[in-house]
Amino acid sequence: METKNRIVILGSSKGLGYQTYLQLHQLHPDAEFLCISRKIQQAELFDRTQILAADFSKSPIDSSIFETIRNFYPTDIIYSAGGGPYGFFQDKKMSDHEWAMNVNFMFPMVLIKNLADLNLRQMIFIGSSIAENQPDPKAASYCAAKHALRGLVTTLQLENTLPFKVRLFSPGYIQTDLLPAHSLPRQQGLARPVAEVAEELVKFFASEQANWP
Question: For 6-209, which CATH superfamily applies?
């Protein structure tokens, strides 16, 4: 029996999350979506899509987010929210660094903990092929959070005690609003178009979907 796709995308208002939503909808027009982001999406949304406004940077975290996800009965969850201050560490406010840690690491950790009993195919988190593995100048707190996220995900993969796969999709620099025009990756042409990265994420998503009984 084919399983109906019920996909939660957290961080879906723009950028990689929204582009992934568009491409997944094209691939699975009968799927149902729950799109959760800080701002309600004003762009095109399709039928069978629910939306919820939530701020992943807040502490303590609003537990009603997890209840809403549970009641949606998802088959897959994609967490695409991320970002952080760009510039020298000491020049940025501590609140900016806390925002980066909360959005890139703390909320993903709490998300897994609160939904650890769900019968999902997968939870996918967005890492960084650069920041999760090496220093990333002018992105210290973002880099620290991505290091922590990778450590969490890879450890859970080794423990293998959850009823679903926890997976890390790690692209390089992406051309989003979070990467300033004056940043070195932009100036050196290292950032890739969002739609191109979203296409790779959709293929990554589908590689686990094919294993669902």
Answer: NAD(P)-binding Rossmann-like Domain (3.40.50.720)
What is the average pLDDT value for the chain, to the nearest integer?
A: 90
Question: What is the C-alpha to C-alpha distance for residues 185 and 79, in angstroms, rounded to an integer?
Answer: 23
**Which helix (H) or strand (E) covers residue 61, if one does?**
none
Over residues 65-91, mean pLDDT: 96
pLDDT tens string 172-207: 777 666 655 665 555 555 667 899 999 999 999 999
Residue 126 β-bridge partners: 169
Beta-bridge mates of residue 53: 37
Cβ 122 vs Cβ 135: under 8 Å: no
> Alpha-carbon distance 123 to 86, whole Å?
28
Q: Is the separation of the CB atoms in 16 and 126 below 8 Å?
A: yes
Question: Would you call 187 exposed, middle or buried from its count of C-beta atoms within 10 A (0-12, 13-18, 19+)?
Answer: exposed
Give residue 176's pLDDT: 63
Backbone dihedral angles phi then psi of residue 53, each to the nearest 5 degrees: -90, 130
Domain ranges of the chain: 6-209
